[in-house]
Write a structure and sequence with these properties.
The structure is a single chain. The protein has 161 residues and is an alpha/beta fold. The radius of gyration is 15 Å and the shape is globular. Helices cover 21% and strands 24% of the residues. The protein has a single domain, classed as 3-Layer(aba) Sandwich (Rossmann fold), CATH 3.40.50. The N and C termini lie close together (11 Å).
């Protein structure tokens, strides 16, 4: 597990961009944390880093449930769903089978429906705009690759990917 701390929304978005640079071509990414932990903010950076949308165009799909930013980038929010049969109607298996990055908020509520081979990112609000972000690599061979050269961390973001 790799753990990072950010001190502002901008730093959280920048960390998302750095994460995007290291993602495999195909991945399910489970974003966990309480309301307001920064899941959508980190997603802004990941989606932006993948070149699928500008951060200002990335919003939580709380009411639409799924945003498709490109054929390669999906953002799913399961917060409003209460039962596994409701989630099953979304066709997530078909999305998970695509050559795409799939970001899932509140997926931990339905672990039986999430791919076993996934990256998990846990976000925790500290005080103010500070966030703790812990990345756990996938379990079935999917890993969060280390960089070939360690770039200097941007100010306020200890460590580097």
């Amino acid at each position: 597990m790799q753990t990072f701390e950010t001190n502002s929304e901008e730093e959280t978005i920048e960390l998302g961009r750095r994460i995007a640079e290291r993602l495999p071509r195909r991945a399910a990414i489970l974003l966990t944390g309480k309301l307001g932990a920064g899941k959508t903010t980190l997603t802004k950076g990941i989606v932006s880093g993948l070149g699928a949308a500008n951060p200002d165009d990335v919003t939580s799909p709380t009411f639409t449930l799924i945003h498709e930013y490109s054929p390669r980038v999906y953002h799913i929010d399961l917060y409003r769903l209460d039962r596994a049969d409701q989630v099953a109607t979304l066709g997530l298996d078909e999305i998970f089978d695509r050559d795409a990055i799939v970001l899932i908020e509140w997926g931990e509520r339905f672990p039986e429906l999430m791919p076993q081979d996934r990256i998990e990112i846990r976000l925790r609000a500290l005080n103010g705009d500070r966030r703790e972000i812990a990345i756990t690599p996938g379990v079935a061979g999917l890993s969060f690759p280390a960089p070939t050269a360690t770039p200097p961390a941007p100010p306020g973001i200890p460590g580097s990917l």
